[in-house]
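Supplementary notes for students who missed Thursday's class. We covered one full example, reproduced here. Read the sequence, then the structure, then the short commentary at the end.
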Amino acid sequence: MFGAAVGEVAAAPDGGRFRPGDAVVHPYGWREYAAVAETDCVPVDPRFPDATAHLAPSSPAYGALTRLAAVRDGDTVLVTGATGGIGSLAGQIARLLGAGRVIAPPARRTRPPG
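Structure (token representation):
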């Protein structure tokens, strides 16, 4: 079964990016052991209280805030879709990443036809 999973590095080559015991996210699903290329692993951010925060539905929000937007301490973050599942997590994750302010506009109401 494939999909995002959190794992612990059991063995790693000398001079590599990871050491045994490091927590990582990889795309090879939940299993007891997996031989995973270093390039397919992302370190688990220690700022999150639970490593499962890296898994769906929070993973798109986390990826956008760490890889695309690179949120830093004190940043202001605008989450336009904050009323949805991913958007509501994006605001929380932004704060955990150090954002000083998160702006989450209310959902636009539309009138029913007629």
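Commentary. Residues 1-44 form one domain. The mean pLDDT is 84. If anything here is unclear, bring it to office hours.
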